[in-house]
Automatic annotation (TrEMBL):
<keyword id="KW-0547">Nucleotide-binding</keyword>
<dbReference type="InterPro" id="IPR027417">
    <property type="entry name" value="P-loop_NTPase"/>
</dbReference>
<feature type="domain" description="ABC transporter">
    <location>
        <begin position="6"/>
        <end position="235"/>
    </location>
</feature>
<dbReference type="InterPro" id="IPR017871">
    <property type="entry name" value="ABC_transporter-like_CS"/>
</dbReference>
<dbReference type="Pfam" id="PF00005">
    <property type="entry name" value="ABC_tran"/>
</dbReference>
<dbReference type="InterPro" id="IPR003593">
    <property type="entry name" value="AAA+_ATPase"/>
</dbReference>
<dbReference type="GO" id="GO:0005524">
    <property type="term" value="F:ATP binding"/>
</dbReference>
<keyword id="KW-0813">Transport</keyword>
<keyword id="KW-0067">ATP-binding</keyword>
<protein>
    <submittedName>
        <fullName>ABC transporter ATP-binding protein</fullName>
    </submittedName>
</protein>
<dbReference type="InterPro" id="IPR003439">
    <property type="entry name" value="ABC_transporter-like_ATP-bd"/>
</dbReference>
<dbReference type="InterPro" id="IPR050763">
    <property type="entry name" value="ABC_transporter_ATP-binding"/>
</dbReference>
Amino acid sequence: MSEPAISIRGLEKVYGNGKVALHGIDLDIPRGSMFGLLGPNGAGKSTTINILAGLVNKTAGSARVWGFDIDANPRNAKASIGIVPQEIVFDAFFTPFEVLELQAGLYGVPKAQRRTMDILRAVRLEDKANAYARTLSGGMKRRLLVAKALVHNPPILVLDEPTAGVDIELRQQLWAYVRELHSYGTTVVLTTHYLEEAEALCDRIAIINHGRVVANDETRTLLATAQEKVVVVTIDRDLDLAPDHLGVGKVELRGTRQLAITYDKRERQAGAVLHALTEAGLGIVDVSTQEADLEDVFLSLTRSVAA
């Protein structure tokens, strides 16, 4: 089995004021994966990313990026990863072309090997190559950050909240390009507060809470851990109140003829819920079910783990 794209062991970070950001986390990110790194604000996601990028010094533990130890081989480790930060940071008086040329120079990419116009074309900024960066829209600036992260052709791309403040069309364009990169073998690590994005894009997800990894599994397996399920039933008469004597879980009245029943799927099946309704004399007109999504799993895990 090939070595993970990123391998973290016992990673700790304690800041000067005594705040513990990471409590000795262990984490492997497989090569070629689309990996989601999720957690509430302040959970330790950005600290982890900044340690991998060489921007923050760890307190203890080890980390390897594409096989290179971040302490023993920092140059190779940094060359193996491209970071797209949350903040939009670059010189407003540089053009996108100049921004990428400067970034390539910082990474030691020879001029003959630079792909500046190819990258700008890929992120749909070719026509803005010589415009000042300050004139770009918010979505264009986001795409320029992605372009900056790609100038040295890293095998790993880390996107830290890349679609914050980006409209739907530009978000779809960005994800189309990221999927294309992934199809060519790039390992993509994504942090986002848009959990539906992570659920749709990522084949594996880890959740960090209070500096600890509380979940790390394939997305479909993680979704299967959610125990609550909702069945929505349209009945044949108007009700003023939700019936409280069914004994099948939480019953919510929506409108006058629709009942949303939340139950634990470990304890009963949908058939038992419907049987309880008919036993109560309620005729069933229509039925639909709602499976738990990543948001349900996320809230369950982050609420249940104390600091």
